Amino acid sequence: MTWTIIILAGATMLLLALVMATILGWANRRFHVERNPLIDKALAILPGANCGGCGYVGCAEYAEAVAEGKAPPNLCPVGGESCARKLAELVGVELDATFPYRPIVHCGAHWDDRKKKTPYRGEPTCAAANIISGLQGCAYGCLGLGDCQRACPYDAIHVIDGLATVDYDKCVGCGQCEAACPRHIITMVPFKAERMPAILCSNKDFAADVKAVCAVGCTGCGLCAKTCDLFTMVDNLPHFNYDAYDPDQADAVRQAGEKCPMNRIVAMGKPSEKDKAAVADEDAPTVAGPDFKTTADKAEWWG
């Protein structure tokens, strides 16, 4: 009797296993979704940084979007132009001229340049300090508590003497520093050349108010806009037209910068050999690097 029960139980389990295997096999064939082979090929081209600079969660999601024609092939800031060209060739699309995006910190005030400073003993983050009124006189300047530095996965931005400073030799343009800045004074701009012009001030107040809180802030005189039509004055602050800028206009922009009484128009990016030779016996000024257009969902940027 015992053996009969055991054999019957075993046969029942075997039968159930066969039935379930048959159902699962049918379901696998019936509901199988073919995976686009271009997805794996696109993923192999991407650098695998998963930085989110393309606007997608990671490289896998972006590879899928490119393979399915839902995203352009030139969104990867880490892979740069070579990666964009390989992706464009893979999916068979024309690639427009692209430029690498790099961050610019639109503030040039170091700690000693700031007036009306108040000691801060709260949580040591820019996000927390930004909600405290009167922490420093300028409500537009860099808070210098390093949220951008902590957010950067490439160790490419550091707070030096109270001011966020980009190391363009390390920067890949992932945009994490821009996203981390609560005052939105870091923006991603198109670097059409190794060095790009930038306006190192974000203060929209009138000249007297700017001078009261900052020793190096833009006074809104408008001389740059009068000298070069790539600059326009908006809310007492010059804006630079990166869309219209061509590297051949560098001399015109430099002349506009020379007109600035506060020296707020600075070439940012990697210095050329000529630039290095010119300041071989001096301390080199802080500089920045290349790409094209800001992200639409970020705050307004100033050049």
Question: What does this molecule look like?
Answer:
The chain has helices at 2-30, 37-45, 59-67, 80-91, 126-129, 147-151, 176-180, 207-213, 223-227, 250-259, 273-278, and strands at residues 101-105, 157-160, 163-166, 186-190, 195-199, 231-234, 237-240, 265-269. With 303 residues, the protein is an alpha+beta fold. Strands 1-4 form a two-stranded antiparallel sheet.
Brief summary:
This protein is of the alpha+beta class and 303 residues long. Helices cover 33% and strands 12% of the residues.
Task: Note the topology.
Elements: H1 2-30, H2 37-45, H3 59-67, H4 80-91, E1 101-105, H5 126-129, H6 147-151, E2 157-160, E3 163-166, H7 176-180, E4 186-190, E5 195-199, H8 207-213, H9 223-227, E6 231-234, E7 237-240, H10 250-259, E8 265-269, H11 273-278
Antiparallel strand pairs: 1-4, 2-3, 5-8, 6-7
Tags for this model:
303 residues; alpha+beta; 3-methyladenine DNA Glycosylase II, Chain A, domain 3; Alpha-Beta Plaits; 2 domains; two-stranded antiparallel sheet; 8 strands; 12% strand; elongated; disordered C terminus
Number of domains: 2
Mean pLDDT rating: 85
What profile does the largest beta sheet have?
2 strands, antiparallel
Query: Which segments are poorly predicted (pLDDT under 50) over 5 or more consecutive residues?
Result: 282-303
The CATH architecture assignment of the largest domain turns out to be 2-Layer Sandwich
- Overall geometry comes to elongated
CATH domain class name of the largest domain: Alpha Beta
Structural category is alpha+beta
Instruction: Give the neighbour order of strands across the main sheet.
Output: 1-4
Report the sheet-strand fraction. Answer: 5-15%
Number of helices: 11
